[in-house]
Structure formats: C-alpha cells, structure tokens
Write a structure and sequence with these properties.
Helix 4 links the parallel strand 6 and strand 7. The model has no long low-confidence stretch (mean pLDDT 96). The strands form two sheets. Strands 3, 4, 5, 6, 7, 8, 9, 10 and 11 form a nine-stranded parallel β-sheet that branches. Strands 1-2 form a two-stranded antiparallel ribbon. It contains 14 helices and eleven strands. The protein is an alpha/beta fold and 325 residues long. It has two domains: 245 residues, Alpha-Beta Barrel (TIM Barrel); 70 residues, Non-ribosomal Peptide Synthetase Peptidyl Carrier Protein, Chain A (Orthogonal Bundle), CATH 1.10.1200.80. The longest helix has 20 residues.
Length: 325
C-alpha cells in the first residue's frame, strides 16, 4: 500500500495519461481486463474548462466512472488553473494532476507543459492555488520531465518547489524536452527526487516489460511505476508488472484470440460512449497496437485507414483469425 495524499492505493502500476489515448473507453476497458485500480485522464485545457468550451468538456467524461479518477489539466495561469481544479472536482475527480511535461511545440510555445520548468516560481504558484481550490480531500499532483534541455536539467529543484507548494505527488519522466522520446531515461534522477521530497514519487519512462518495473522500483525507491507507450494495446503488461512487483507468477499471455477479443470489446465500448464514427476513427490506432507483432498484423495495418464502421472492425478481426488458423 502507498499514499497519494489522502488516497490509499494498492496498485503500484499506473497507466500514464496520454493525449489521444487515455480516453474513457480505454480507461474503462483496461480496468475491466486487468483490474487497473487508478484511472488518469488525458490532459484537458484549463482555459477551455474555464471558458466552458463544449469540446473541452467532452474530455471531462468522468461522471459515473469507477473511482478513483485523476483528471490531468494543463495551463499557465494560477487563477485559471485553480478554477479548473474546482470544475473537475465538482465533476467527481478524486485527484487533479498538472501536465508540466508535455513537449509538443503547440503546448510548449503557449508557455504550458514542460515550458513551466523554465519558471519554477509560476509552477509552484499554480500548485499552491490548486491545492487551496481542490481542498484537503483531493490530492494535487504534477507530471514533468528532467528539464527543457540537457544543459538546464532542474527536475530535482523543481520537485522540491512543488513539494513545498503542497503537491501530494510528482511524476517524473527523466528525459528532457529536447530529447523528446529518444535516449535512455536517467532513472538516477527519479532516485534523487525520491530522496529530496516528502510527497509521493511516481517514476515514468523505459518500462517495457515486468523486469523493468522491478528494476525501477529497486533503483529509485519510487512509490509507483507509470507506463505509457508500452501499454498501448497491451493492458496485460500492467497486470504482468503488478505481479512482478508483488513477487507473483506472471498472468497468462492473451494470445492472438485474446487480443482480438479485447480489441472488439474496446471497439464496442468506444462506440457506445463516443458514437460509431468517432469511435472507429479512434480504434484505427488501437487496432494497430493490439495486433502489433501478431500473425497478420502487417496485412491488417494496410487496411486501418479504411475502417469506418464497427462492422468493418469485426470483419478485419475475423480475417486475421481466419488467416492465423
């Protein structure tokens, strides 16, 4: 067991918030398949929430979702971030996370995401304002990188500032903005942050198999491990990492049929929540991920752009299974 502010959690494996990936159908299916304990939404614009933008509010689709759910928001204005925190808590969020690590140009140029690492004072002011707005029962956390460039790595001091401002936890992806998703992560930075702060510390980056999760915990002392790209189309990885951390035998592999059944369940769930047109467009990328490395994956990828209906997805899965048989 470990604590994220007032939340007491059993699982030490977390599906990372990923823009365009961590929507409600994905979160729901992962919970159903592998018993994922904690859901973390994709990032939502604080400005859109404050302006009551209808499209932004579609991302805040958590009403009735199994708790606990942590909603991730991004922005740079402390007052607006505090108001956004009030909005997501009123919607039912059990936690609020601030994205201070997104490296994409559009977010960076607006002074949000990892750009906040160039202004630790502003970042701390955001956390302080949000902690007051969210109230003592709702933890406020932040996810960030090692720094903006290799010459300006400041994640340890940055974590200290956020901890002092009242953050209940920090998640560190120890690559810089300039490294994007290349180079190996420097896990020693996670260990250093763990030594320097009193709040919970979540490690992220380069966890692609259960042994990686065990090594990260052993080498850094982090409270939990966050998995991003490696879990796309592979919810079973979360369960395998959980088992490894607890010293249990790994769960059985799903095999091609199990993956296809999960893919179809995901598609049906997405259609029920998003409508068929939007859901099937989203399922194109998920289909590629579920079938990655499986027999028939190459032929399936060549057809992804033509998937328009749930029937198309079912036909594709049937063809993959028939070819494998």
């Amino acid at each position: 067991m470990w604590n994220l502010g007032p939340l007491t959690l059993r699982s030490r494996v977390i599906l990372a918030p990923m823009a365009g990936v961590s929507d409600r159908p994905t979160r729901t299916l992962f919970r159903r398949l592998v018993g994922m304990e904690l859901s973390w939404t994709e990032m939502i614009s604080s400005e859109g929430l404050v302006r009551d933008d209808p499209k932004t509010h579609t991302y805040l689709d958590i009403v009735g979702e199994e708790p606990p759910v942590i909603v991730q928001i991004f922005g740079r204005d402390p007052a607006h971030m505090a108001e956004a925190a009030r909005i997501v808590v009123a919607a039912g969020a059990e936690g609020v996370d601030v994205n201070m690590g997104c490296p994409v140009p559009k977010v960076f140029k607006s002074g949000c995401g990892v750009a906040l690492m160039r202004d630790p004072g502003r970042a701390a002011a955001i956390i302080e304002a949000m902690v007051e707005a969210a109230g003592p029962a709702v933890p406020v956390t932040a996810k960030f990188r090692a720094g903006v460039t290799e010459d300006t790595i400041n994640c340890v001091e940055f974590a200290r500032r956020l901890d002092a401002a009242g953050a209940a936890g920090v998640s560190l992806h120890p690559r810089t903005r300039s490294q994007m998703f290349t180079h190996r992560c420097d896990w020693s930075l996670i260990a250093e942050v763990r030594r320097e702060v009193g709040c919970a510390v979540i490690g992220s980056g380069d966890v692609t198999e259960p042994a990686d999760a065990v090594r990260m915990r052993e080498q850094t002392g982090c409270d939990a491990v966050m998995i991003a790209r490696a879990a796309q189309g592979d919810p079973w990885l979360l369960a395998a990492c959980e088992a490894a951390l607890e010293g249990r035998p790994p769960p059985p592999e799903p095999g091609l049929r199990g993956r296809c059944e999960a893919l179809l369940a995901h598609g049906e769930l997405a259609v029920s929540m998003l409508g068929e047109r939007r859901a099937v467009r989203e399922m194109r990328k998920h289909t590629g991920w579920y079938l990655r490395g499986q027999p028939g994956a190459r032929q399936a990828r060549s057809r992804l752009a033509s998937l328009d209906t749930l029937a198309d997805l079912r036909d594709l899965v049937a063809e993959v299974l028939a070819a494998a048989a």
